[in-house]
Amino acid sequence: MFATCRRTSGQGIYKGVKTAAPFRMPLPRQLAQRVGKVPVRVRLSRRARRLALKIDAVGDAVELVLPPRTPLPRALNFLNSNREWVEDRLAALPPRVTFAEGEKVPILGVPHRIRRVARSRDHGPVWLADGEIRVTGEAVHLARRVRDFLKERAREEFGRRARRLSLRLDRQVGRISVRDTTTRWGSCSANGNMAFSWRLVMAPEPVLNYVVAHEVAHLVEMNHGARFWRLVDKLVPDVERHRDWLNENRAWLLRIG
Ligand SMILES: [Zn+2]
To answer: Is the pTM for the entire model greater than 0.70?
Structure first.
């Protein structure tokens, strides 16, 4: 979930000091910023070629990625010289929306207001009616009930769409599960099982369709080559637009609930 908020050091690998060196001079665990204390997570990465800062939209934190053999003073310098960037990016994150009475939560892109109501013989603990998510039971359970409801709804929506689209490719979908992932919206394993982020159920329907089509196309092509994208295009229109939407709204989706 970091792709849109990333800053790198502009310089290549520094080959002076061994990887073990960084911990002699500790890096700060948090930055005291105008927006408050910002947690700093340090990650040593063997694959990274540059120092990088990534904004964590879930934890309102910043991650400092260290390539091998980065001298500590240089890492510290990089962190300090980008404090303003960190502050700006954190301030630009969309506001958090909690699952609480009166809050509006989108379902397939359509806003629904959360409302606590009395139990009803005609429904389970949570149901949709007149643009509302109606939730029964004590207030303390409300957030969990809304979340469980959305996850279940998400699983149904993904399953139905995946089965329908896979028929068009003459393939069969395995088990469908939902997760709360932060780095990928969906995945497809070699045996046809698929996993999706339940948060996609809040995205507009065409976006959700695109992510399902993407994973379904992996039933045929286990890669992101030209043939793969041609398949996705065959299954759903406007792929580029939906990918843009996901990139632009990633932080927003991650900060609901
Ligand atoms: Zn893929």
So the answer is: yes
